[in-house]
Amino acid sequence: MKRIIFFIFLTLFFFRPYVWKHQVPLPFNLLAVLYSPWKYQTWPGYPLGVQNKPLGFDNLKLFYPYRKFTTAEFKQGRIPLWNPYVFSGNVHAATYQSAVWYPLNILYFILPQADAWSVLILLQPILVGWFTYLFLRSLGQSPAAGFLGAVGFAYSGWMIALWEEALVLVHSILWLPLALFASNLIWEGKHRKRGFLLLVIALSMSILAGFLQMSIYLFGTVIVWNVYCGYCHSGHRAGIQFKKRWIPAFAGMTLMVAAFLIAILITAIQWVGAFEAYLLSSRGVVNAKFLFDQFLSPVTHLITFIVPDFWGNPGSYNYFSSLVYIQERVIYIGIFVLIFAIFMHCIRTSRDINFWKIFTAVTVSLGFALPTSWIWYAFHVPILSVAQPARIFVLSTFGLCILAGYGIDGMNREGSRRIFSRIILSIGAVIGFLWMYVIYVWFIAHTKSFPSDQKWPYLVATVSLRNLLLPTVFLIIAWGSFHFIKRNRTAFIITAFIATILGSLYFANKMLYFSDRKFEYPQVEPIIALKNFAGYDRVWSYGNGYIIRNMLSYYDIFSAEGYDALYPQRYGELLYTISSKGVVANQINRTDVTLGETSQNELMTSSPERLRLMSLLGVKYIIEHKEDNWKDAVLPEKRFP
After folding, report:
1. What's the rounded mean pLDDT across residues 199-208?
2. Does the pTM of the predicted model rise above 0.85?
3. How far is the C-alpha of 575 from the C-alpha of 586, rounded, in Å?
4. Phi-psi bin for 99: left (phi > 0), alpha (psi -120 to 50), beta?
5. Three-class HEC string of 422-469
6. Measured between alpha carbons, how far is 86 from 556 in angstroms, rounded to an integer?
7. Distance CA 275, CA 563 (A)
8. Which of 57, 66, 50, 138 is nearest to 98 (CA)?
9. Per-residue pLDDT at 40 exceeds 50
């Protein structure tokens, strides 16, 4: 109980703007800065503009409007099977990411939507920390070791970067340690009923949470772990003859299979429709090779194990790496956790620990640009072959934190001092090399002139130099701890905890965003006008007045456009004929369906395909930005037939 209370208070401190300033962990501020029509409004009290971070875009155009629609439909006594406001109508519950049946969504019926969303975000590190601690203790780790491993995973860089970025993503994977803990209860034999019930709950909750890729990772990990446990309980680990141990092994595997089947049956209300929607979507025909080309990380990304912000941070508006969407590539776990995890890789260990060593090595490799990382794409594995591959780093992070817990318990074994010294020296050599590189670039940046479009020397000389300071300090603290207070176990562990939490807090302050509640989809004049007279007619916007797909659905305004992972392939092909000049093609956009984003002055008659489709789809009203300097260059009579 003390542990979960600690996780609650630590999480509240991480999200203190929500607790103390009544701000919400949602990117509403971006509406007032980036998106039409809100960006054209004047906001009193913000003479220098509305502060924001360029993160969480999918929350605004996908997850938040979907949640509002789901809750509104249930409150009116309707099951939200169909969403009429996007794609000229599209399945809703079957889109999977709508997470219609996720039990924790009951919060939306109790609290205002922004607060229910916020509480679900806060629950993530609390549940992850608690579940991970239970699992690590079931592995035989000491309370201190299990606690450090749990803190490392719950407040790891990957978790922090995704807490707010994609709510359904983290909620789909946070049940992993609980599922593994439940599996251990079953194999121990003393609490099989409890373990069986917890396993069914964990598996079901993961599926219902709404992100299938994470559920596949969870199911795969649980299956592999249970196969290993079954192998051990059959007598192979203890050297006992198989005939003497087959009964408990058979009983354990029977319960596992039963738990999986029951969970699949319980969640059929979600995945059956989603399976059909997947078959009818563009996911099976659109070439997703670019995902592996762009999102598998280069080997140089290993630097971020030590210096997570070496190339800057998008939350600080100073990210300058060529790697896109860095949020799902984060592998930072803190210097101390990393040292303990590496330590376990450097010593001879038991089979249980070897399992997690192999697990970690494999999952880390699958996130980097290696030949083996293309396995999902090469074999056309459903879901995984069309999903962002670097997300597997969540499993790497989990494995490293498990090993770190083992490392705490094994740090006093014979020869450990020498191994720790070598690990710290190796990390120090990497940091030393980075310092030399940064200083060199700083020198040439101040002694040579570069073209205006070549900014990397100045960014390295400022951003990278500044972000090297804290990892260097943490490494010095780690070196001092191992050499001077290691024998005082309590003091050493407290130092490791504090350093790990401070590192996570520093990273979180960059990644986490909070918004004033007044920017929660404000009712501005163009929106009010549309709500008054659009009715059941559909709306389109273009040029500088373009309203991003799905956002109008928040106001119950109908649109022919949409943004979702599972939309009908045939509808995408139909609207893609605008771009292909009437030619039907199956290589269409993976997630976006539009009537074509056009410039402010383009003549509507330049695309007869668009005009025909607008007529077929019932588009009656067009939104434009009235205050454009070049708008009058082409008279309205010529722009609109």
Report:
1. 96
2. yes
3. 11
4. left
5. HHHHHHHHHHHHHHHHHHHHHHHHHHCCCCCCCCHHHHHHHHHHHHHH
6. 10
7. 19
8. 66
9. yes
